[in-house]
Fold each of these.
Amino acid sequence: KNKDIKVDLEVPSLPTFEDKKKDKKEKRKADRHLVSQPKHETPPPKDPEDDLDDQLKQRLKNFDFNIMEMMGEDSPRKNVQKATWVTGRLALSQQSSRFTLPIDMARLEQMTPLDYVKNFCIIKRRRKKLYQDIFVKHKDKTGQIPFKDLEKALTMVLVNTLTSDDYKRIVELLDISDSTRVDVDGFSAMAALAERLMCSTHVSQEQVDQPDYQKEKIECADFSALEWKLTGVQVNPKIVRILKELN
């Protein structure tokens, strides 16, 4: 006969979901109370130049106070605005502007001499600022300089350099008359041409080889074979004269 086998096993106690959730909550609570220990890092060594800068600043500060005491001043002197107008001879340079030629020389056929210098003269930024400042000083209500004020304005650009004869030569080259009025671009171009022409008469033999008194290489290349470039083109004779003066 088969005997019934009876096994008595106790049911193991398993963790419930609530116990697990409770353990996680207590662990998080414990973590919140943990205080991390600050890390003690060694500061980088101080640059010796920083000490020198601090010392220099302090010396300058003391120097300013000493000067104030010597001059009997209670507060630092304010900067005095300097005059902006040129009072001495302008340092002439052939590199303050660059004259160019059009790729199609036939473009010159319809131009006046003043048109040429306005369209084919590249003026350096600092020099152009000087020309513009003097233009503003002499322009009239129309925003132009009338012929009667041109000589005075150009003379202010080329202080102690441009003579009355030089001015007449420039007026003749540019073919301008008593009725001519020039805008800022025209005046800047005239001033650049005048400075270039003055270089040939006011530069000594010792200065000829210095960079400032030599034309830029790109301009020299542009004006090379000038006679050949003018062949077959009906250009205003006064423009041709200007080109030869520049060459």
Amino acid sequence: MLVILGFLIGFSIHHGVVAKRTLSLHEVLNLVSFANAEEAKEKKILYWTCGMHPSVKMDKPGKCPICAMDLVPVYEKGAGAADAGALSTIELSERARKLASVKTDVIGYRSLAKDIYTVGLIDYDERLMALVSAWIPGRIDRLFVDFTGTEVIKGESMVWLYSPELVSAQQEYLLALETLEKVKESTFADVKNGATSLVDASIRKLRWLGITEMQIEELRKNKKTKQHTIIYAPISGIVIEKKGVGR
């Protein structure tokens, strides 16, 4: 015998298997009554109930007062389970199961997926964006990236900028280096410390103006000011907006 939970439509469970019905619940219940008629003669009927509303209990056959479906019998061997608070069940004989075209499957965990089609807005992730701008007033004499959509690599040249303020900052740094070189043999500690502080201050100013460590080191070695400075790409990516215009 296969036990089907009375409140489920289209499924039944018994001893670790799931049963799928191809007929409606009303049709299956009618088949149950027909196929189990002979077997029911030898069993004691406790009461009559509705497969859709197990709370309905009648002492004789008839119609469910809620949904008007035919009542089905509950036999003596199911009374203990019902009294213990278990779900009411309906039993199908082998013949009834064949008439109802019941198929079984093993119970298990399965992944469920559902495609959802909707509308929305797509925007850039601000955490992955970088703004490339000059830290000093000046003039763009050349723009290496001249249109949006260009792919750039971190450290790649983007802007060739002329700035009188930057030229002055370079000259101050070279002058501070020259002064430190002259007083490095001095026996006066205050003089040497003052020259060293002047060099450090000049380096900090260059950094504040956007000059990289590599450019500062190149200036220290060559000891020549540059009329133009290059602004490099801070990250790799694609240019999505361009406001600067080169000459």
Amino acid sequence: MASVPAAPSVPLTPAERALRDSLLPQEFRDVHLYAFTRKTVFSDGSSRIDHPLPIFAVGSILKDTDHFSKLLTIGFAEASTDGQNPIRQYAHESEYDYDSDSDLDEFEEVEDVRTPVASLSSKGKVKEENVNEPESPMRMEGGRNEKSHRVFIPNIAHRTLKACIFYLYTDKINFLPLRSKGSAQRRLAFLTTAGTLAPPCSPKSMYRLAEAYGISKLQDLAYDAIVSQLGPQNIVTEAFSSFFARYDRLREHAVSYLSQVYSDPAVQEALPDFVDRIALGCLPHASGVLRSLLGLRVTLAPPSRTTQPIRNIQSEQGVHG
């Protein structure tokens, strides 16, 4: 009887590897990534990025990505779970360089009480959805605290980072509507995708993460999600935003599209206000976008009809006295 050849070995997907590792007796989610979840706005108009929460991840899968491989090699902040070496509760000034990150829940502090390390007062009003995450559990083994690998990431939102980790596991991503599309669309997206799709995130926030971490495929997905949501109703707001100004690829697309829909009533209604604000110096980052737009408009404008010169009839017919 002829022997049946063995089936070729098929490499496991990241999700399958995570399931395999979950069968092991030790804690397989060996990396705890901490990231900020909210932007607290104080009564004087100032704000602070704060309230970090953990994401429990499988280090062996994260190491497939160059950025996380380097981070997990040199970036560990090992600490026991007994409360020593606590995670910092707020971002330092200028540490978080994306002030309008929509993946941060916005929180209004009623009383201007700024506690530097402890969690902020619970008195306040949350403008957007709160993301409830479990606190880091204390793992006991053999009557002692087991040390866990903890990595603090101070410049990426928790929601964005969680969506990125899920993408690295499954190759699936779920982008939210842009904030410029209206808060109603974002709320509906949260309600309709909860529990059924990948963790949601802002495509702009993910574009920023993917560009910083060198994950080009994810960056392309975020780019496509951003530009697909641009229309006459929001192109002016997006084109002159600080986010579009910092990325050449997005800025060039926005200028090109804005030139195409320049005559649309929605564009004509929104544009004068932004031009005035740029002229007053309120939007210094947007001056380059305006110059590019004007230059493109001049280049694409049809040539003007040449005016016929006025003939000097007297010189042709002579002067009669």
